Amino acid sequence: MSPSQKKARKPRAAPKVIDLSSRAHRQLIGSIGFWLPLLLWLIAGWRPTPPLPQWTPLTSVSAYYYTGAASFFAGALIALALFLFSYQGYDNSYGRRDRIAAFIAGGAAVLVVYFPTDTPDPAVGFSWWMPYMGTIHALSAAVLFSSFIFFALFQFPRSNSERADQPTEKRIRNGIYLACGLVMVICTVWAFTAGIRRAPVFLPEVIALEAFAVSWLVKGRADETAAAAGKRAVHYVRHPRQLAD
Known about the structure:
The chain is an all-alpha fold. The chain is 66% helix and 2% strand. It contains nine helices and two strands, in the order αβααβαααααα. The chain has a two-stranded antiparallel sheet. α2 packs antiparallel against α7. It starts with a helix and ends with a helix.
């Protein structure tokens, strides 16, 4: 093979991509969604609000605004909004979409808090609540999950390399993003049809939240972080003096 042929077959270096948001940033966003339903249920159970059921799930995740978990519900969503507002994505041709989608999602999360859904029981309602607030809440929740679907289906699978050149790990992650996005689409339609029938939407909302959380945790390489933490834990168990030092 001639030198010119070797030079022609030399693979082209992939363009350098600068990650403007850390993996920890994405893991925090995903963790909020992952733990939110469980913690709402636990806090509301420990701080019951009669006549609402103590341990039975309410009609929706947003209904926990009227329980003893109200402060956690509002705080978690505002924290999520702040992390989304500060999310920068990547310094590439798709970075602008990252920032716009994250800003829209953050704004929707704030509106979900400040315009609560209707009360699950008139006995625990607020005198200042108006029907238009419920409409804004529903539309904001739809925008919020639409943004998460956009990230999972269109932004997270992006890569500067051709599809055939992507490593196996990237292809697996793309498959997870696709699955999470489709689950959120199905759950959004499920919740919409259930809402029209005035049926409970707690289950589709929880499933959609978990799918959103998984997509962000995978994007943040939470598995690698957990593996590294596990190795450190095993090391210090074997060498406890090093931990003390």
